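Data deposition worksheet. Section B asks for the primary sequence of the deposited chain exactly as it was used as input, without tags or linkers unless they were present during the calculation. Section C holds the resulting structure in token form. Section D is free text for depositor observations; keep each observation to a single sentence. Incomplete worksheets are returned to the depositor.
Section A, Depositor: J.P.
Section B:
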Amino acid sequence: MSTKAEKVGVVVSDGMQKSCVVAVEWQVRHGMYGKTERRTSKFMVHDEENSAKVGDTVEIVETRPLSRRKRWTLKKVVRKAVEV
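Section C:
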């Protein structure tokens, strides 16, 4: 039984139809100095209902390749962005 990978990140772009870009941040220790540093990966995510907006915290799940760069699907919006 293979479980799909899940990640939590922040939407950084939603200008496309049925797609958005999610930035996932994690911490890793520096090999020589031991200080923790933050690293970021950006994933193209399929968003069927265009429900995610910039700044929203979302949960994404791995899926089959949907296009050249899209391999993730929006699972749910965890927290909406604060409106200014």
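Section D:
The domain at 6-79 is CATH 2.40.50.140 (OB fold (Dihydrolipoamide Acetyltransferase, E2P)).
The radius of gyration is 14 Å.
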